Structure formats: structure tokens, C-alpha cells
Amino acid sequence: MVTIDGYELPARWLRDHGDDAGSVHPQTLQREVDTFAIPRDVAAVSVENAGETLTIGWSDGATTGHDLAALLAVVRSPRTPGPSPGSFRLDSGAELWSTRPVVTTFPAPVIEDDRAWTDALGHLRRFGWVRFDGAPLGDAAVRRLAGRIGGIRTTLFGDVWRMAPGDVEHQDSAYAPVALDVHTDGTYLDDCPGTIVFAQQERDGAGGNSILVDGFAVARDLVEREPTAAELLARYDIGGRYLEPGVSVHADRPPLRVDAQGVLRQVSFNNYDRAPVLPAHGWVDEVIDAYAAFRALATEPARALELTWAPGELLLIDNWRVLHGRTHYTGNRVFLGCYTGHEELESAYRRAGL
Hints:
Layout: E1 2-4, E2 7-9, H1 11-16, E3 44-49, E4 53-58, E5 63-67, H2 68-75, E6 105-107, H3 114-127, E7 129-133, H4 139-149, E8 161-163, E9 180-183, E10 195-203, E11 210-214, H5 215-225, H6 227-235, E12 238-244, E13 247-253, E14 256-258, E15 264-267, H7 284-298, E16 305-307, E17 314-318, E18 322-326, E19 333-340, H8 342-351
Parallel strand pairs: 6-7
Antiparallel strand pairs: 1-2, 3-4, 4-5, 7-17, 8-19, 9-18, 10-17, 10-19, 11-16, 11-18, 12-13, 14-15
Helix pairs in contact: 5-6, 5-7, 6-7
């Protein structure tokens, strides 16, 4: 424990929540370090209180800085767990994959053919993703694919957005050519995007493959291997946040969101955008360990479906189910993309009789 302004704070939790430039991006506050690598028994070896800021040296060799007012605001609002959902079940239409499924790619013209589109939509229903090739470049193909679901969801990134190295309109980690850990998008939005459309426009260089993981299969395996961890992730809200000039959004939901009928409805996991949250006293290590246990399963190599890209390829992902990431890349890698709502996806399934 570390005593700060009369509060005893768990050292491991405090080490995780540095807000200095080495811990988080100075504008977006996205995490810059692997918080899952923090030792469970980490201890503070020095604490310097400068009135408005703290500087803490740690037994693992790290040093973190903390805005004292922001830290105490979190400490004074500890989270308590919600009611237990009991054992949850999965959507019967989903075919879970813990190892890489066979990759099926549909020709882009099926988007215009009602019968063929139903087959592609059925693939999305079963696996949580579907891929197309041979699409024309430009945003018309993106808009048409989203229109087959229902309509484009406009967010702080606009309707159809462009993602390329060096773009400076947004400072999100996705705009840098670095590898990205698997995650879901929009954890900081109450109305979290239901699907993501990615459309490759330009490509040279190496790397930049997309990584897909079935989050529902991860949840199922977590229930079987670590049921207490799964229950905690269904009971504790973990906040998400996104900040840039003119934008400050925040939303809370449990990483495993279970509905009143006991069905797992949504997986919500993004350690880059995770907001500070202090679980109720006595549950700090357990909640941190549960979040880490989910991530450990999600990053098992056998689960990763790795997809290469070429211009004219489209990928549609169920963002409430499938986690996505990518490998490091070099060269030019330009995408267009957009979001749709999950209620529209569910409507598309019903309209198609799926």
C-alpha cells in the first residue's frame, strides 16, 4: 500500500495509473506502456509530493508521475460490483472459433445480389466477420456495404474516415505504424459501434496484417478456466475514454456485458483507452487479474486469425464480438472505414431470416 493524502492505495493499482508522458500519450491519454507486465508485488521505493503532482519510484525500476487532484477524484469514487449474472450463455447463432477458421472471401459483387448477400451475412452471423475482394476504390464501396447493414454511424471521426500513417487530424494510436494489441473500438462511447468496415485503398511496404480474435470464444474459455474472473468482468464497469482537442468522451460498461436473459451480448475490451477505475476495497487485485486473464487468453497465438491486405479488399467486423489488432508495418497503408449500429446489424439478420 502507498499512503496518499490519507488514503491507502494499492501499489499495483497506482503503478498502473501513472499519467506522465512516459505512461500515457500527453494529448489522448492512451496508454504507452504494457500495463499487463507490471509485477503483482510491485512496491513504491520513493514518493515525492510537490503539492499538485506526485513522482513515485517503483521497485521494478519505473518512475511514474501523477496529477494529485485527478488521482484523488478517482480514489474518492470507488466502484462497487453489480449483481452477479450467474452463468451466462452465448448467442445460438454464433459458431465460436478458438483456433483459426478457414478464411472465406466473397467477391464484392455479392453485396449487390440479395441471395448472395444473405450468404455473406450468414458468415458474419456465424463467425463475427466477413471479407470481400474486388471492390472499387473510394468511399462508394464503403457506403454501399454499410448501407446493406442499415446506415453509417457518425462518430467523432466523421462518417467515412481515412486512416493512414502520418495523418494528424486525430492522434489515436491507430494512426501510427505500430503493432496494435487486440481490442474493440468505441469503449468510450455509450452507443458503442456495432460493426466496423475496413477498406484497403493503398499499400506498399511490409507488415500491417490484421489480427482477429473471437471475443465470445475467449469469454467462454474464461468461464471454464477462471470462472471467478469471468464473473468479475461481468459485474464491474471498466471505463473507456478518448481525448483530443475539443473532445473528451467517457463511457462505462463491463467487459462482458450480459443481458437480463443471461445472454452474453457484448465484449468490450481496450487497454489503450481504459479509463482509471478503482474497484471497491478488497477487489483491486482480483479485478486487475481478471482483466489480465482475459487479455492472456485473447492473445494466445492459436486464436489469432491473421489476414493480409490488398487494395480493393473489404472487411466487415462485429465489434461487439470480435477483437481486432494488427502487426507492425512499414510503407504506405491507407484505409477508409466506417461504423454502423449493432441494432441495425441485428435488424439485418432478422430481415434475412438468420
